Amino acid sequence: MSAHAVVFVGAGPGAADLITLRGARRLAEAEIVLSDALVDPALRALAPQARWVDVGKRGFRDSTGQTRINALLVGYARQGLRVVRLKGGDPSVFGRLEEELQALDQAGLPAEVVPGVTAALAAAAETRRPLTRRGDGRSVGLTTAMTREGRLQAGAHADTEVYYMAGRQLAALSRRLREAGWPADAPVSVVSRAGWPDALASEHRLADLAAASVLHAGRPTVVAVGVGATAVAQRPRAPETRAPAATPEQTPSP
Ligand code: SAH
Question: How many angstroms is it from 201 CA to the middle of ligand 1?
Answer without folding.
Answer: 14
